[in-house]
Amino acid sequence: MKLEIRNVSKQYSGTLALDGFSAELTCGLYGLLGPNGAGKTTLISIITTLLPPTAGTVLYNGRPAGGRDYMKVIGYLPQDPRFYKSFTAEEFLRYMAAMKGIGKKDAAARTAELLEQVNLTAHRNKKIGAFSGGMRQRLGIAQAILNDPEILILDEPTAGLDPKERVRFRNIISRLSSDRIILVATHIVSDLEFAAKEVLLLKEGRLLKKAAPTDLQNSVAGKVWRIQAEEAELEQYMRRYVIANAAASGGQYTLRIVSDEKPQESAQPEQPRLEDVYLYYFGETYETDHRL
Amino acid sequence: MRQIIGYELRKLFRNRLVLFMLALFSVLNLYQIYGDYRKYAGSEKSWRDGYFAVYDEISGPWDNEKIRYVLAEYEKAKAAVSSGNYSTEPDQPGTHTGYVFGDWGLFEQIKDDMERMYHYGKTMAALTQKAADNAVFYEEKGNPALAKQNRLIAETYRNRSVAAFYDTLGISRYLKYDFSTLLILMLLIPLLSPLFAREHESGMHALLRLTPDFRKLPYAKLAACCTGIALVCLFFFTEDFLAFRYFYHIRGLSQPVWTLPDYFYTPLSCTVGGCLLLQAALKLLGFLVIGCVCTAFSAAAKHELIPFCCTFAVALVLVLTDAFAGSTVLSVLNPVTMLRNEALFRDFKTVSVFGRPVFSFRLPVLAALTEWLMLAGLTLAAGRLPARQRRTRHEI
Amino acid sequence: MKYECYKLFVKRKAWLLLLVFTALRLLTAFLQTNYASDYRMELYRDAYFRHMEVLEGRLTEEKAAYIEAENALIRELTGENSEDFIGCYIRGEITEDEFNERYRLRTTGYERKDAFAVINDRYRSVSQNPERVYFLYSNGWTGLFGNEHLDFVLLILVMLLTVPMICDEFSTGMYPLLRTAPNGGARLYAAKAGTAVLTAMLSAMLFFAAEAGFYAAVLGLPDGSFPLQSLPPFEQSPYPVSILGAAALTLLNRFIGVTFLTLALLCLSALTKRALSAVFLGTAGILLPYILFAKSSLKYLLPTPLGFLLSCGWLKGSFPVSPNAQEILTVTPAQYRTVLLVSAGLTAGLFLLGMLAFTGFSLPRIRRKGAAALCLLCLLLTGCGKAPASEPDLTGLVYDKWQYRPESEAFSVIRDEETGSFLSYPDSGGQVPLIHDCFTDTADLRRGSLPYIDGDTVYYVNQYSMFHMEIIALDTRDFSERCVYRAYWSDNLDRPEMLFGLGMYLPSKKPQEERTDAYFVHHGQLVLSKPQGIFRIDLRTGDECCIHAGKTENLAATCGYLYYLDELLDLYRCDLKTNVSEKLPVGKIRHFYAAADGLYCRSLKEDAYYFVPPDGSQKKPVPDFDGDAFLKGELT
């Protein structure tokens, strides 16, 4: 199976949300990383055919994406879904099974299996309105894989989940990634660090990098530093460099800095993580980051 | 506070649907006014042209020449019609309206209007005298209430006269025209329904509650609501007036209001222009009441469809009640009376309040003002309630 | 579609909405029954149905003969001038019993005439088109589908059920999931449309069935197999269908209307994605044409759901814009076919447009929640009802010598045709106008009525229109006035004036009151003479009781009794303490005047005046009696 995104662009009245995005995806877990407004949701909407591209095409196994056959192989979990609050979990999955063209008998079996898989069997008859965020996300992943899709698209699937839920979610996704294309758009880098086959970095509608996490980490080798700084110097460093972490201890700060240049003589190089890669490509200093 | 009100107003009107409907309704309104004009100013163009041409000639301060002219034309047309020797073909030369029968009808109407207005001062002098005599009589009989009422009559109608003659058709039709009232009502309900409800729907209510100026917000919303209603009313009232003025060649706005045929015995002492403003103000009051019904529902509801449906139902019931209730307590309390206020000022009607005669048209106005304040208070109270914690039923 | 039905009926409890709205529809039908299309049928219901037993159905020679015979009988009974048989009685050609019988027959004749009037009206139409116009009782059917009014209840229900079917998918964030599902998108939209349309049709059918049940129970729905033209509103109908067939066609038109409306609402919902916007546009789209084109056939000819929702106009052919209006609308079968075709095309277009919008016109943004809510209020309008008749409390009521002539010791009432009515004070010689209304030059008592004096109070009738009457009590001590009785009647088609001229043209309403003529007031008791009889109303308690049923004349009181002539011109007196009336043995009286000590009666037979004491025990001739002088107080 191969999903090809060829030179896809999307223009919204004056704004270019996607600019000539091209990528080829095969079996495995792909992470889609980028800051807010990078075009992740736009790209996902185009892949799922919710939006038509202004230019370019999406091909699946050589055929243009779209149509009923394509829908049969897609599973999608949008960002922060609320579903039908008066439906129970089981009712909801049965309903989505019907929408996905799964027969009644198969739907019953599949529903039971999925509820087990996402650990919601005990809550099968509970109304979705009473679910916590984590339970709702698990239900969301269950409905997304109801039809055993070949392409699974997840938009911010772990936003708002506690660490335990996130780990559970990662494990489910990892299990699924062996024989299908999974594309996860997220801000939470740690979800992809050890599981993703490749990570796509998206900035201002353009694909910056597409590589395995280790390769990306290696690309910023020698650009991650650890230094000690006094409290009085802290602000100065924050103005000048991208700070990945600042830990205080006994009046001094241990700073993890991502920078091309060595920030101070005594700076020690650190093993880059995926988060450092993110900061390297998307991070901003105190002066340039208007969000501070 | 002014800034908040400004933002609330922007939120209200930054709605493409409402703006589109405003544009559409203004076109419909013009269409309806034109239909009204064609119906009441004569379906034949020759009649309308003749009508306005004659009034152009004779309008203005009393002039014996003009009176003689009207009487002469009337007699001439009457004689022609009585003789039977007249053509029924249209566009006859030597006629004003295009045919003799039309001229006769026109000048008869003008003559009657002229007579009514010319003798108005005398009629009112007689009435005033009679009222003064009655007042003395009732005092002697020990009936102070009726004595006061008659003194009020004498005072009200004292020194009334008509100094000039103008066509009153346009103004009379304008006062009776109420299609724009329906349009404003239809526009206000969807405009105001989301005022409070949208904050709950969008989850903004929780955020706004944590701001220092949250307590001002319901007041600002209410102020924006009233301002919005006033703006919409101003738009339509202006359109109505300009359209009527254009079609009906309205003049004589500085004439006393009692020159209008339906207002012969009006207790109002103002000009025609003043009466138009008064009518507009009362309509605005009626809309403010109904608008506050909507905002009260909106403040209590979590979904904007609820205040829409509720206000629509309430408005429907109020309109039906106004039609069927007649002159009862219901009509005093019904804000639709404000929307149809043309009949309020026609006759001298009073009620006794603590032994003093009070014009009865003040009652529905007072009732409407009270209702407005009460509903505004209700809106403010509902708008300041904390967001409910329990889950609401969610639609599928 | 199964799931859509489940979502609608189970999860959103549409079945509850349907029940509630059906009850509401029944309530509105109940409120409208007062406006039955022909109130005359209800006024003389018994007589009407008696005739219908013979006449119902197609016109035959026997039925025509029956009608002719009835009309002849009516002519015979009423054609004779009362003076004729009075003259016969005077001349001794007929006995008193024969006179009574002929008088009774004459009165009966007029009643028969009134009761038969509606049949005669119908006969005119039936005889012109006997193949298609039959006799039948039509109020039930007309109420069911003959009146042209927009069913607001159905309109609101359809909006509440339909709009959230689409809008809620956006507000709950389900839209992207459904769009990306194989059975989502167009299939889902089609399923929703099917569910919505079926539900709307079910609603229309439920309402129609409920109304049919209501009218069948209250008014009756007889003879559905008769031709449609037998119903008065459909006389000009060009369609050769039965009444039942027409009812079915009306229902079918409503189905078409709700289908059109539903698909339009779904399209609006898909385009706007907001429940409020869709509902508002839908409401405006129906209401505005309804008002703008209320008096125009455009309301049927425009390709909107409105014409189909109104539905009855399609079957009427030519009909007045409103009951009793002169302007005639004509809607032909050819126009119907054209509008139907165009509407079908438009409906299909809206369906496709909605489907396109749902499946990919724009990026579905998750909207805020919208909810369909039900909140309708009904206000029951109550008119003024009369208190149930009961015996007034006469304890303490003192019966003085009642004065007939408007006179008291302190003053009297003098009437002058030119100058009006005055109170005359004999002691001071002064005169004061009775009525002090500044606004009318000739404010006076109603013509033909007399004022009555009760102590310091003068009661007079103030009539300011043909169909109103007020009895005013004037306190002569301070000349304050209050209205003690008000009657309203109307025998024309009177409809409430509605704001914006909303096209709810209701048929005629039954008159509220019968015409009230003579009256008498004494000691807080108002005695009224109406066509149904004499009634007494206690002005303090409002209690009412009937003293004498049937037509009466010449009501007056003196010597502690109430005197009157019945329709047979017999003189009765009534003891108001006991309400017992007795006939006085004085023979037939043409007219009488009540004096302080008895009555001056003009005998029918002798055509001369007699003085009759209060008990009617004797008659003393008074040959020079002058009634006018008596009334002016010039005779003692």
Provide the fold topology:
The complex is a heterotrimer of chains A (about 290), B (about 400) and C (about 625).
Chain A: E1 3-12, E2 15-25, E3 28-33, H1 40-47, E4 55-60, E5 63-64, H2 67-72, E6 74-77, H3 89-99, H4 104-117, H5 133-144, E7 151-155, H6 163-176, E8 181-186, H7 190-193, E9 198-203, E10 206-211, H8 213-219, E11 224-230, H9 231-240, E12 242-249, E13 252-258, E14 268-269, H10 274-282
Parallel strand pairs in A: 3-8, 3-9, 6-7, 7-8
Antiparallel strand pairs in A: 1-2, 1-4, 4-5, 9-10, 11-13, 11-14, 12-13
Chain B: H1 2-13, H2 16-40, H3 45-58, E1 60-61, H4 64-83, H5 100-118, H6 120-140, H7 144-157, E2 164-165, H8 169-176, H9 179-192, H10 194-202, H11 204-209, H12 217-248, H13 272-300, H14 305-325, H15 329-333, H16 336-339, E3 350-353, E4 356-359, H17 362-383
Antiparallel strand pairs in B: 1-2, 3-4
Chain C: H1 2-11, H2 14-32, H3 39-43, H4 45-55, H5 61-79, H6 82-90, H7 96-128, H8 139-146, H9 152-171, H10 175-179, H11 186-218, H12 243-272, H13 275-292, H14 298-301, H15 305-310, H16 312-316, E1 318-320, E2 328-330, H17 333-361, E3 412-416, E4 420-424, E5 431-433, E6 452-454, E7 457-462, E8 468-475, E9 480-488, E10 519-522, E11 525-530, E12 533-538, E13 544-549, E14 552-558, E15 561-566, E16 570-575, E17 580-594, E18 599-603, E19 609-612, E20 620-621, H18 627-632
Antiparallel strand pairs in C: 1-2, 3-4, 4-5, 6-7, 7-8, 8-9, 10-11, 11-12, 12-13, 14-15, 15-16, 16-17, 17-18, 18-19, 19-20
